[in-house]
Amino acid sequence: MNYKDIKIGSNRSFGVVFFVVFLLIGLWPILKGNEIRIWSIVISLIFLILGILNSKILTPFNKAWFRFGIFLGNFISPIIMGIVFFLVVTPTGLIMKLFRKDLINLRKNNSSTYWIEKKDIKSSMKNQF
Questions:
Q1: How far apart are the C-alpha atoms of 31 and 28, rounded to whole Å?
Q2: Greatest alpha-carbon span in the chain
Q3: Residues 99-112: pLDDT tens digits?
Q4: N or C: which terminus of the chain carries fewer CB neighbours within 10 A?
Q5: pLDDT digit string (tens) for 54-81?
Q6: Which of 59, 42, 45, 56 is nearest to 16 (CA)?
């Protein structure tokens, strides 16, 4: 999928999200008994005002943030999928081989067909709809 096919978010939602982010950065020191970060609160209010007004000023920042997300996605997704594969799928397969389990009947046998006859038929498949 090409990143140009993905629709970029609105300036309003971008402004509100960054308002919340900078507000949290500004208020975070309160948890440890320190003073709030005034610069972060000011930036958060600027993002809120520009977001509510749906200002065109946020468009270049929104596009840059979108491209940064696409850039990160190109690297992070394969890394996460590799970690999942090597930490979950591979050990599961090795354990199944160790216990000689064949859950999906892939083992080669001498029969003329791999078709499995069902002994307990639950429906006749007539009048399905």
A1: 6
A2: 78
A3: 988 887 777 777 77
A4: C
A5: 788 999 999 999 999 999 999 999 999 9
A6: 45
What gap in Å lies between CA 121 and CA 78, rounded to an integer? 43
Contact in structure between 65 and 14 (CB atoms under 8 Å): yes
* Res 2: pLDDT: 67
Q: Which two tokens stand for residue 102?
A: 């064949």
How long is the chain?
129
pTM of the model: 0.62
Write out the DSSP string of 84-96. Answer: HIIIIIHHHHHHH
Q: Considering only CA atoms, which of 16, 14, 3, 20 is closest in space to residue 59?
A: 14
Distance CA(7)–CA(40), nearest Å, equals: 29
Task: State the burial class of residue 65 (Cβ atoms within 10 Å of its Cβ: 0-12, 13-18, 19+).
Answer: middle
